[in-house]
Task: structure prediction
Amino acid sequence: MTYKINVLPSRTEFNSEEQQSLLSAALSQGINLPHACQNGVCGQCVATLRSGSVKPVDNTNALALTENDVQAGKILLCCCQADSDVTLDMPSFAGTKNQHIRTMPAKITDLNIYHEVAIMRLALPKAPPFVFYAGQYVDFLLKEGNRSYSIASNPEQTQQLEFHIKRRENGLFSSQLFDGRLKVGSIIRLRGAMGSFILNTNNNPLILVATGTGYAPIKAILHQLVNEQSTRAIHFYYGNRYTNDFYDDAALKELLDKLPNAQYTPVLSRPDATWQGKKGYVTEHILADYADLSAYEVYACGLPEMVLSCKTALTQHAKLPENAFFSDAFTASQAV
Ligand SMILES: Cc1cc2nc3c(=O)[nH]c(=O)nc-3n(C[C@H](O)[C@H](O)[C@H](O)COP(=O)(O)OP(=O)(O)OC[C@H]3O[C@@H](n4cnc5c(N)ncnc54)[C@H](O)[C@@H]3O)c2cc1C
Result:
């Protein structure tokens, strides 16, 4: 059964099949509705049901919705499917302002393994240029399913993209990079750019937060700030377990050196005796450093638990407005 979906106020229309989330239906038709994690955690694909009915998609949990949200008719598009024709209210979606999602082949030109992370660079077809916003991601299209990865490179470079891939035990995609089945010269297919973890254009001071490869979209955002010769106050908190988890130190320091008002706080949760820096978790250090974040914007990316706890802590204990917290939660792919 195919249903018609109408998104207001942009009047965007697309079709949705049964057993398909409303978000994946839109993305497969090239419509980049606001979203990030695709797993109910980040809440960016929230919309209000105006007419029609929806039902949950199996194995999803709309964690980002409160009881009040549900009472008010709010739904997460990644967690529900159409049960009739549907009209949605989604003021966060501007329609035509969003670039088109494309599918294309790409060649691996560079692959460096640092402990548990691979930094992979891909060359893209020369034309038309691949346009993306810092903070967005692509899906790598594999026969068995898709895998999402954030773009870490400078948005001004449209012919070569950089990705940071964490090794996952028996990972469908990451294992192929770590065991050599995918190597320099291999061709892979990708679809993008997608997602709405994008920096707002204003001069508000910024707190950037990452754990692990959650640093990838933050690196792209730092590139953007350098391109803009930004003088914004920026404080980047980067959490890892062990010292050798900081896999891209030199490039990170080079970017931070170009930002006159940037501070950097690396944090380790399992430091060895030689570690001189902060210990524990990123959120506790942000709270210790900032009692009042009412004028700030926070961009957080990494483990879903970190993203959720960071939002709760900063909004409840440091006066951060709820609508000034932006996140990308690196959830595991559901498609196997
Ligand atoms: C928008 C978005 C952007 C992302 N960007 C990045 C990125 O830049 N770099 C990056 O490394 N990852 C990123 N991820 C997470 C990545 O897509 C998943 O971890 C993916 O499932 C890994 O694929 P795989 O084939 O290696 O492992 P899979 O075959 O998917 O999984 C293998 C095993 O590892 C477990 N697993 C996989 N991922 C996770 C996880 N995140 N947490 C806990 N257990 C897990 C699975 O449950 C399974 O048991 C992103 C996710 C999203 C939604």
Q: What stands out?
A: The mean pLDDT is 92. The first strand starts at residue 2 and ends at 8.
